[in-house]
Amino acid sequence: MYLLLISAAAVLYLFLIHPSGKRRKEAREFCRNSFAHRGLYGAGLENTLPAFENASTAGYGIELDVRLTKDGEVVVFHDETLLRAAGRADKIADLSFAELKSIPLFGSEETIPLLAEALEAADGVPLLVEIKGTFAVDELCRKTADILESCKGPVAVESFSPVAVRWFSKNRPQFLRGQLSSRFRDAEGRKVPLFQRVIVSSMVSNFLAKPDFIAYDVRNKNQLSFLLCRKLFRVPYLLWTVKGTGEGMIFEE
After folding, report:
1. Residue 88 · residue 103 · CB < 8 Å
2. Closest CA to 197 of 205, 189, 186
3. CA distance 59 to 118
4. Half-sphere exposure of 203 (CA within 13 A, CB side)
5. Residues 22 and 213: beta-carbon distance below 8 Å
6. Where are the chain's structural domains?
7. Who contacts 44 (Cβ-Cβ below 8 Å, separation ≥6)?
């Protein structure tokens, strides 16, 4: 009886973590790129137009993050608030784009760009777009997808949110989609509710989200679910964030 239960649990686990295999060749080709994390930047000017222009000039792909402003514009910014970048506690979602354009980032003259502006700066290099958010992501996904239709080069979306990955699977399957994951063991990761950490780190939502590739924290690359996805299901993957460049990496300078 115990052996039967263990076998059934193992089969269920493999079913839950099974990613999509329909676009393996295309996803594998995309994941061979090296992606500059938030652009190629110095002096902290991440996710800015100069950072994207630098990456494009150097021939690297670009990883960037998108959020919605109060007035529904899709902007490129990593954090939920402006505290780290501008010394203000305001949330991006609580300010209009016009208000955000008046706030300099990291003590420079640069401000938060629109996703459409970032596409122009990227100038056709491979683009990896992270959808920020957890559950209420439909509007962000839809507006991001609409903007990405005009992208000049290869593009894929990714998210820690299986809800966002599933949205693209159901509504815009033409875009490659990736499940971001980690063990959430650093201070920032531990702020994520426990049930979300368990689901995302183990990737047991793959059967619903059906990611074409996995982007996993390089510090946790031996996590069981990730190993099984790589070795058993042969899913294409990226590792983040890596110092120095190489195939299948999201790197920082």
Report:
1. yes
2. 189
3. 15
4. 31
5. no
6. 2-252
7. 85, 106
Whole-prediction pTM value? 0.96
Model confidence over 164-210: pLDDT tens digits? 999 999 999 999 999 999 999 888 888 889 999 999 999 999 999 99
As a whole number of angstroms, the distance between CA 190 and CA 207 comes to 25
Q: What is the largest CA-CA distance in the chain?
A: 67
Query: What gap in Å lies between CA 97 and CA 5, rounded to an integer?
Result: 54
Cα 161 from Cα 137, distance rounded (Å): 9
Full 3-state SS string of 77-97: CCCCECHHHHCCCCEHHHCCH
* DSSP element (H, E) containing 117: helix 115-122
CATH topology of domain 2-252: TIM Barrel (3.20.20)
Query: What local confidence, expressed as pLDDT, does residue 178 receive?
Result: 98
